[in-house]
Design brief:
- This protein is of the alpha+beta class.
- It folds into five domains: 124 residues; 110 residues, PAS domain (Beta-Lactamase, 2-Layer Sandwich); 88 residues, Beta-Lactamase (2-Layer Sandwich); 46 residues; 155 residues, Heat Shock Protein 90.
- 48% of the residues lie in helices and 19% in strands.
- Strands 7-6-11-10-9-8 form a six-stranded antiparallel sheet.
- About 4% of the residues have low confidence.
Length: 593
């Protein structure tokens, strides 16, 4: 808002104040809108992060329970070993000690001990002090005829020990002894220590007994507390807030733990502990910040355009007033006006370019926020065998009541087949969901393709897509990583299914050809590839921008994975659709060495 020669001082001041208030109001509105977008984006990203973290926590807890269960099973199996039945002579004791030492070496146990009913140590793989363990909680539980377990910290070495005890029964059912297996928790932690997210396990006394972050070991949690305190009881910085139903901790516990973390818990009654995880929320905050910045950039771009348009109009009005009031200086005023117009045109072009760039950044941010989407079709594959098992079980009961044992046996066989099918589906799904990068080596391509077809079988059947794939009877070994190759072929099969969404004939053909290199081709009856030269570029897609159908990353990711194995992938059009060919190097023993 400019002041012309015809305006007075009071009018100029009024216009300047109006201009200030308009700009201030616009900035406040943009700030409030950006804050709202940031809050919404943060909540959405936090919910997605929570879903992934829950799955990771369940995997970590399952892995720990499985590893600890091994020692319990060892105690139960070795308790009735013939070498432990009679320990009267020195020769018999040495034989028993050799057996226990062999068990300890093969299971990586700290010690394996056999005690009599009074808790005295009769024989052990390694020397043990004290020689009487009658007060040990695991021993007392085993003397009641059940499997006992306990954990604690060795006073002398400071090692964290988990103990399992199993009773040894005599000929008349009496308990004649107890076999105790001592496991070092640190050996169990070695397989997953240093993973991305902090995981720790708290026992019934509120002590952090197991963790992949050594800084948290033996920290404590008092009754009614949320956070943790140091082993000596000293408190540390901690605060807890709830965001969209998720618990977020603010802490300062060292450089290996996040400042702000999503906190999740999972009860593990099998090992009498509670699993907890701290997941850094910084990526969620950065994603929300990108979304808010994109919205603010668009608003400022539009505001700049409106401001420039208003200024241009008022500049033209000022030039006209100057021309009318100063006829003698018409030529010079006209030149100045033309110069001002040229500058404004350049500024407007720059503003339009900035707007287009901001819009492109917003689209990319939206694409990134859609990463992590997974198919839920496997649930249908598991529901069908469950319903069939229930039906066969009911039929088997009826046949048994009627005395038709053969028919009942047939139903039991069908139940076994259904259970094996469910186990195979779950095994393939868990293997495909692993996030670690396994080392490259020998991979059976027949098994990889079988796994990929099983993972996509539910979707292909629901969309009535015919799959032509006949596995070879012999293995075909290639150089690569099994999990990452399964991801490549799942991406190619899903892309082929997407391309045939509205086609009358929907068929996917998979062929495996041995040679040097090994070739795997996947053909479909879709519309073909629109631009084969750009098909492997990141974010290149023929699907509608902003939908949930695709982000243009699948083929780019597959291209990078195959290249990392020393192979190649290419796409081409055929007479009735498209064909993608994956070339891999055959596995050679010299290369593996």
């Amino acid at each position: 808002m400019r002041c012309t020669l015809a305006m007075g001082v009071a009018e100029c001041k009024t216009l300047d104040m109006q201009r200030v208030w308009i700009i201030a109001g616009f900035l406040c509105a943009v700030g409030l809108l950006s804050a709202g977008v940031w809050t919404y984006g943060y909540r959405q990203a936090l919910s997605q992060l929570s879903e992934k973290a829950e799955a990771d926590l369940e995997l970590a807890a399952d892995r720990l329970s499985t590893q600890m269960q091994v020692y319990q099973e060892v105690a139960a199996l070795v308790a009735d070993h013939p070498a432990l039945q009679t320990l009267e002579g020195l020769t018999q004791q040495r034989t028993a000690q050799k057996v226990l030492l062999d068990v300890a070496d093969k299971t990586a146990a700290v010690n394996v001990i056999y005690l009599d009913a009074d808790g005295r140590v009769l024989v052990s793989a390694q020397p043990v002090t004290p020689r009487n363990l009658s007060t040990h909680p695991a021993f007392q539980r085993a003397m009641q005829g059940a499997l006992g377990s306990a954990h604690g910290v060795e006073e002398e070495s400071g090692d964290r020990i988990y103990s399992y005890a199993a009773p040894a029964f005599g000929d008349f059912g009496q308990i004649q002894g107890v076999l105790m297996v001592l496991a070092d928790v640190q050996d169990v932690e070695q397989t997953w220590r240093g993973s991305t997210d902090a995981v720790f396990f708290i026992d019934a006394d509120g002590v952090v007994f197991i963790s992949n972050r050594s800084d948290l070991l033996l920290w404590r949690r008092g009754v009614g507390q949320q956070g943790l305190v140091l082993p000596e009881g000293k408190t540390v910085d901690f605060a807890s807030t709830m965001v969209a139903g998720n618990e977020v901790w603010s802490l300062n516990w060292g450089r290996y733990l996040p400042r702000r973390a999503l906190h999740l818990t999972l009860d593990l009654p099998v090992i009498a502990m509670t699993a907890e995880m701290l997941v850094d929320v910084a990526p969620a905050r950065r994603l929300a910040g990108l979304q808010a910045a994109a919205v603010a950039a668009i608003c400022f771009a539009f505001g700049a355009l409106l401001f420039l348009a208003s200024e241009r109009r008022r500049t033209l009005a000022d030039a006209n007033a100057v021309l009318e009031s100063r006829v003698a200086q018409r030529t010079r005023a006209l030149t100045a006006a033309n110069s001002a117009l040229r500058r404004e045109v350049v500024e407007r072009q720059d503003a339009e370019a900035a707007l287009k760039q901001a819009q492109a950044d917003l689209v990319q941010a939206g694409k990134l926020s859609a990463l992590g989407k997974m198919s839920a079709g496997i649930s249908h594959e598991l529901n069908q065998p469950l319903m069939a098992i229930r039906q066969f079980a009911d039929n088997g009961s009826e046949f048994l009541e009627r005395g038709k044992d053969q028919k009942a046996g047939e139903n039991l066989g069908r139940i076994s087949d259904m259970a094996a099918r469910m186990a195979r589906i779950i095994k393939n799904l868990r293997a495909f969901a692993r996030n670690e990068s396994e080392p490259m080596g020998r991979v059976d391509l027949v098994q990889v393709l079988n796994t990929a077809t099983e993972l996509t079988e539910a979707r292909l059947r629901d969309e009535r897509i015919e799959l032509e794939w006949t596995p070879q009877t012999t293995a075909v070994y290639a150089w690569g990583g099994e999990v990452r190759l399964v991801q490549v072929f799942v991406n190619l099969i899903n892309n082929a299914a997407d391309a045939m969404a509205n086609r009358p004939i929907r068929r996917i053909s998979i062929a495996l050809a041995e040679g040097h290199p090994i070739r795997v081709s996947i053909r479909d009856t879709g519309p073909g590839i629109e631009d084969p030269d750009r098909v492997f570029e990141p974010f290149y897609t023929t699907k509608t921008v902003g939908t949930s159908e695709g982000m243009g990353l699948g083929l780019s990711i597959s291209y990078g994975l195959v290249q990392s194995f020393g192979g190649d992938i290419r796409g081409a059009n055929t007479d009735d659709g498209a064909e993608f060919t994956v070339e891999l190097e055959p596995f050679e023993e010299d290369r593996a060495a």
